[in-house]
Amino acid sequence: MLILIVAATSFEVEPLVNSFGNKLDVLITGAGMVPTAFAMGRQFNMHKYDLVINLGIAGSFDSEITPGYVVEITEDTFAETGAEDDQEFIPITTLGFGENTFKPTTTLEQVCSSLYLTKAKAITVNTVHGNEESIQKIQRRLNPQIETMEGAAFFYACRQFNTPCLQIRSVSNYVEKRNRDNWDIQLAIKNLNNFAIELVNRIVNN
Ligand SMILES: O=C(O)c1cccc(C(=O)CC[C@H]2O[C@@H](n3cnc4c(=O)[nH]cnc43)[C@H](O)[C@@H]2O)c1
């Protein structure tokens, strides 16, 4: 089975890469939705994969999904794509120009039934929420559990190329008034990579 790992930065997947070396294809896209979509489009034009997995750290809006928690993303919405109408937000779906919510094309259960993760709904943003008023606003509008800067672009690229995909995220921080001292990136990366190493081992040895 040919697997591609997609991550925004190399440090997020370093332990996994150290475990598997060149037995695993890894695409480092750079942070954000545009670099992700571009890098994946280029990669998919050159190679075809049986499974593509997006791994990375993320913010959590959900007090039960605490830093260090690893989750499977079941849907992901481009939260900012639309138009403002004074105090209201009109999503692109209502404007009639396209879609804003994308889903994985397989599930963890289908890929490896012996592993389980809590499922969560995500948003993808260009501007990370770090202001109490804007956080409450997005919670009222979309009620997300997880926030990243790439996830929906990852699902979009996989759908365009009809490629089975999963997004697995590990929480490094709560989405709150910006405070970098509260982030635990080390714990998030450790838990993410422990899970990913187990997952890839089980898939390749199956
Ligand atoms: O210094 C900051 O305020 C800051 C804000 C967002 C992200 C960063 C990073 O260095 C990490 C980039 C990477 O991590 C993902 N990520 C992690 N936490 C969040 C979040 O709360 N909201 C959105 N994205 C997050 C993201 O996918 C990036 O790839 C620094």
Automatic annotation (TrEMBL):
EC number: 3.2.2.26
CDD domains per the UniProt record, alphabetical: futalosine_nucleosidase_MqnB
Ranges of residues in domain Nucleoside phosphorylase: 27-199
UniProt keyword Hydrolase present: yes
GO annotation, cellular component aspect: cytosol
GO molecular-function terms, A-Z: adenosylhomocysteine nucleosidase activity; methylthioadenosine nucleosidase activity
Keywords: Glycosidase, Hydrolase, Menaquinone biosynthesis
Known pathway: Quinol/quinone metabolism; menaquinone biosynthesis
Catalytic activity entry: futalosine + H2O = dehypoxanthine futalosine + hypoxanthine
Functional summary from the UniProt entry: Catalyzes the hydrolysis of futalosine (FL) to dehypoxanthine futalosine (DHFL) and hypoxanthine, a step in the biosynthesis of menaquinone (MK, vitamin K2).
Similarity comment text for this entry: Belongs to the PNP/UDP phosphorylase family. Futalosine hydrolase subfamily.
Record-given protein name: Futalosine hydrolase
Organism for this UniProt entry: Mucilaginibacter lappiensis
